[in-house]
From TrEMBL:
CDD domains: crotonase-like. Belongs to the enoyl-CoA hydratase/isomerase family. The keyword Transcription does not apply. It comes from Laccaria bicolor (strain S238N-H82 / ATCC MYA-4686). Keywords: Fatty acid metabolism, Lipid metabolism, Lyase. This is Probable enoyl-CoA hydratase, mitochondrial. The gene is ECH-3.
Length: 265
């Protein structure tokens, strides 16, 4: 996407249609400081606007996807409501969830606190066998603040969410897969989860971008709308897609037994 220099993330193009963002504060296990989050939002928003990009992958290191919000940054904010309120502390955390294009999280190692919440903001999570998910905020005298309690409850239900939020226990990759936090655990091996995520992103990017973005929108709506409204939204968007060239191309290509050439129009 850009040749911009970042301090806390790396941005690359492993495929022409895929942007890979790697959190890069190895010494702090990718603790999510405010400057890091600003860079992350900026890189993803740029990719979201770039017509040549179809999907994004977000990853960390082998040891840590992200070990949470930056505790050292937070610890001095105690009791300064005026400060955190006026500076909109951590308010930009939700921005990832409003991107149009899919973001795949490739998680190895620790995904704790804000790191777990960041993964949950992504559209698909792939885990390496080393992945560990947890909401350890309770051990710091606080609770999740980046959506963990709500997004986990939607995905794994009350009892498991309560256990995670109230005990802070870390959940293994396999357990996370059994619970539905991640879509699957990839094979063992360094870099494997990123390779898989990039391959999946490339596959998604080969589809009609309009259809992909509409698909993301309706699936997300399932978490916000009641069933009748969700079904209506899905049907309306489905109707709308018949006004695209990609629908005509996709269905013609199928009839003519050839690969579609989507133009994202
Ligand atoms: N913040 C800042 N620094 C961190 C963090 C963190 N979250 N996690 C690790 N580090 C630092 C350590 O301080 C250490 O630095 P140094 O070398 O300078 O001492 C370095 O990373 C390496 O860490 P460890 O030596 O501790 O490595 P270990 O392998 O021994 O342990 C652990 C790894 C278990 C992951 C351990 O580091 C740990 O428990 N980290 C904290 C995990 C945690 O509590 N996370 C939750 C943070 S709170 C949060 O995320 C709230 C989110 C709110 C979002 C609100 C949005 C609106």
């Amino acid at each position: 996407t850009s040749q911009r220099q970042y301090n806390f993330i790396l941005v690359s193009r492993p495929e022409p249609s895929v942007v890979l963002v790697t959190l890069n504060r190895p010494k702090a296990l990718n603790a999510l400081s405010s400057p890091l989050f600003q860079e992350l939002n900026q890189a993803l928003e740029e990719a979201d606007k770039d017509d040549t990009v179809g999907a994004m992958v977000l990853t960390g290191s082998e040891k840590a996807f992200a070990a949470g919000a930056d505790i050292k940054e937070m610890k001095d904010k105690q009791c300064k409501f005026s400060n955190v309120f006026k500076n909109k502390f951590l308010e930009n955390w939700g921005e990832i969830a409003s991107l149009r294009k899919p973001v795949i999280a490739a998680v190895s190692g620790f995904a704790l606190g804000g790191g777990c919440e960041l993964a949950l903001m992504c559209d698909i999570i792939l885990a390496s066998p080393t992945a560990k998910f947890g909401q350890p905020e309770i051990n710091l005298g606080v609770i999740p603040g980046g959506g963990g309690s709500q997004r986990l409850a939607q995905v794994i239900g009350k009892s498991r969410t309560m256990e995670m939020v109230l005990t802070g226990r870390m959940v293994s990759a396999q357990e996370a897969a059994n619970w539905g936090i991640v879509s699957r655990v990839v094979a063992d091996g360094e870099g494997e989860v990123v390779k898989e995520a990039v391959a999946m992103a490339k596959d998604i990017a080969s589809k009609s971008q309009i259809a992909v973005q509409a698909g993301k929108e309706v699936v997300n709506a399932a978490y916000e709308l009641n069933l009748a409204e969700g079904l209506r939204l899905e049907r309306r968007l489905f109707h709308g897609l018949f006004a695209t060239n990609d629908q005509k191309e996709g269905m013609s290509a199928f009839s003519e037994k050839r690969k579609p050439n989507f133009t994202h129009t």
